[in-house]
Design brief:
With 105 residues, this protein is mainly alpha-helical. The protein is 57% helix and 0% strand. It has one domain (3-94). It is built from four helices and no strands. This is Protein FMC1 homolog. Belongs to the FMC1 family.
Length: 105
């Protein structure tokens, strides 16, 4: 098992993204982190105890970490680009145009 795919690295990635998704929550009291740590400790001797394929537990952890990373990226993009409908002036400014000045008769 390489260092990049070690259970500790996977747990760190998962806890990083859980912390990013819920910055106000204490990561040590998070139910997901406690469950992952308990499962990892249960398979401390070997991760093949109940897993069918070799390193399946690490693979599932990496999959979950990628999912959390995608959720964090989606939230960041949604915050930037899903602000609702823009005014005509804002839409023109996004593409580098300016509207003509209004003339009062």
């Amino acid at each position: 098992m390489s260092v990049a795919n070690s259970p500790l690295t996977v747990i760190r990635r998962i806890s990083h993204y859980l912390r990013k998704l819920n910055p106000s929550e204490n990561i040590t009291t998070n139910a997901a982190v406690q469950s992952i740590l308990a499962e990892t400790r249960k398979h401390d001797v070997t991760d093949e105890r109940t897993c069918r394929a070799k390193e399946e537990m690490v693979f599932m952890g990496e999959t979950y970490a990628i999912y959390l990373e995608s959720v964090a990226n989606y939230r960041e993009l949604a915050e930037i680009y899903n602000k609702g409908e823009a005014t005509v002036e804002e839409a023109a400014a996004k593409v580098g145009l300016r509207l003509p000045e209004k003339v009062n008769p």
